[in-house]
Please model this.
Amino acid sequence: MAKVINIKLIKSLIGRSDKQIKTAASLGLRKIGDVSSHEEGAVLDGKLNVIAHLVEFAEADEVEK
Model:
């Protein structure tokens, strides 16, 4: 079973590069406080590296079905 990562946008996207804004949008993060959950993988790791200074992320405790 794949691990699930919860990601929360904690800093504003105003004044950020287009690449960072598009990366956040691809994760479903548009406003401060938005939270999304994604399965861990190489693609997610790359996206988190691009916007790591704008988000908090942690492994989800339980997976809801």
User: Anything to note?
Assistant: The chain has one domain: 4-59.
